[in-house]
Specification:
Length: 117
């Protein structure tokens, strides 16, 4: 028996020894679920439908904000090629996008507080 073969057998025995106690302790839940992100069970059917709608609305707002920033960045790139007025519009678009997204994201908690949802 070579030294390398003995080392491989020793590692295999060590792996079996370590994995047996872990396999007996950990129980895996194999049902597919969306990530929770710390806001409670997102898959629970008893969740308030208005709150679920507002959660989806926040996600849509963030996606629209990213698209707005990318659109404005594209205008700045085109303006860099010799059309300075397009670049200026791109910079203005970044400001409007950031302010619009900020207002929309602040409006959701304000609306839920006022409505008591």
């Amino acid at each position: 028996m070579t030294v390398m073969h003995a080392g491989v057998e020793m590692l295999a025995a060590l792996a079996d020894t370590v994995s047996i106690p872990i396999a007996n302790v950990v129980e895996w839940d194999t049902t597919p679920r969306l990530p929770d992100y710390g806001f409670g069970d997102s898959q629970a059917p008893e969740q308030n439908p208005i709150q679920r709608f507002l959660n989806y609305a926040q996600g849509v707002i963030v996606v629209l904000g990213v698209l707005g920033i990318l659109y404005s960045a594209g205008k700045m790139v085109v303006g860099r090629l010799g059309r300075s007025e397009v670049a200026a519009e791109g910079v203005g678009g970044v400001v409007w996008t950031i302010m619009g997204v900020s207002l929309m994201l602040v409006a959701i908690p304000v609306a839920t507080t006022i409505a008591g949802v």
